[in-house]
Design brief:
Layout: E1 6-10, H1 15-26, E2 30-35, H2 38-47, E3 55-59, H3 65-78, E4 84-87, H4 100-131, E5 134-139, H5 152-172, E6 177-184, E7 187-188, H6 190-193, E8 203-204, H7 205-218, E9 222-225, H8 227-238, H9 241-248
Helix pairs in contact: 1-7, 3-4, 4-5
The protein binds NADP nicotinamide-adenine-dinucleotide phosphate.
NADP nicotinamide-adenine-dinucleotide phosphate binds at residues 10-11, 13-17, 35-37, 40, 61-63, 88-92, 112, 139, 141, 184, 186-187, 189-192.
Length: 267
């Protein structure tokens, strides 16, 4: 039986999740990689020549509770109880609530970003509580601090991630299980690469992963990365509603998912 620690990461087939997997591997962790695209994760692990004992791939859809719960149970059965669980899988879809079909897009965002996050943590909670140790990490976003035009579904989902993790932290405080919220600013991944507007303090995914790893290891409750966006987020919280409305007035909105962009968009 190996004594290497274990990390379970959702959204490990791309971007932030893949960068976190690389960072945890460098730190000596075994990897439990989860996303819908299994072959992607397998190829990535093989490209790094990871020994078979150091990783396992669990193809699953976090928006389907049975699918992600089964993946988590398979991980515990074959690799053991993780030390760290990172609920990172997420999607961003622009919506306009005046369109009936955009309510379905909103449901998809909430199913992935919110229920998917809770369902990722769920199978591990009792076992971690019994062990008296563990870290549950939720990947939120600076977009969860205030609403942005066209971004209602994503902003609301990420605000919910922040509030959900804070609630769970309170529930688990006495158990020894830590709940950590990481709110990224702009990180260079396939998600942001399609943006055609300025992204202040844009950070490479591997640099983000270094900083997130340090925060998670230190048990920091809530951290915005990069730090400059932390100050932006603090300021955004302090701005009175009337002023925020004025700042947003006339700003372009994020285009609807599937609709052609009509100009620069919000993140
Ligand atoms: N990049 C940024 O600037 C930024 C900023 C703030 C917050 N974030 C958050 O960071 C997280 C990762 O984003 P990213 O930038 O790395 O995006 P990305 O490159 O698009 O990666 C998203 C990951 O989520 C997985 N995923 C999506 N839906 C899924 C589902 N239903 N079931 C399982 N896995 C699913 C995808 O894998 P499959 O397609 O293989 O399933 C992929 O691995 C997201 O929660 C995002 O909201 C990113």
């Amino acid at each position: 039986m190996t004594h290497k620690p274990l990390v379970f990461i959702t959204g490990a087939s791309s971007g932030i999740g893949q960068a976190l997997a690389a960072r945890y591997h460098r730190a000596g962790y075994r990897l439990a990689l989860c996303a819908r695209r299994g072959p992607q994760m397998q190829e990535w692990a093989q490209s790094l020549h990871l020994p078979a004992t150091d990783y396992a791939v669990y193809p699953a859809d976090v928006a389907d509770t049975n699918s992600i719960v089964a993946a988590a149970q398979a991980c515990m059965a074959s690799q053991g109880l993780p030390d760290v669980v990172i609920a990172n899988a997420g999607i961003s879809l622009g919506i306009d609530s005046a369109y009936r079909e955009d309510l379905d897009a909103m449901a998809q965002v909430f199913a992935t970003n919110n229920l998917g996050l809770a369902a990722t943590f769920h199978p591990f909670i009792d076992a971690m509580r019994t062990r008296g140790r563990g870290r549950l990490v939720g990947i939120a976003s600076v977009a969860g601090i205030r609403g942005l035009p066209g971004h209602a579904a994503y902003c609301a989902s990420k605000a919910a991630v922040i509030a959900y993790c804070e609630s769970l932290r309170g529930e688990l405080r006495a158990s020894g299980v830590q709940v950590i919220t990481i709110a990224p600013g702009y990180i260079d991944t396939p998600l942001t690469r399609k943006n055609r507007y300025p992204m202040p303090f844009l950070m490479p995914a591997d640099v983000f992963a270094d900083k997130a790893f340090a925060s998670i290891t230190a048990g920091t409750r809530y951290r915005v990365i990069p730090w400059q966006m932390g100050w932006v987020a603090r300021l955004m919280r302090l701005i009175p509603d009337a002023l925020w409305d004025r700042i947003l007035a006339g700003q372009p909105r994020k285009h609807r998912a599937g609709a052609a962009p009509s100009g620069p968009q919000q993140p």
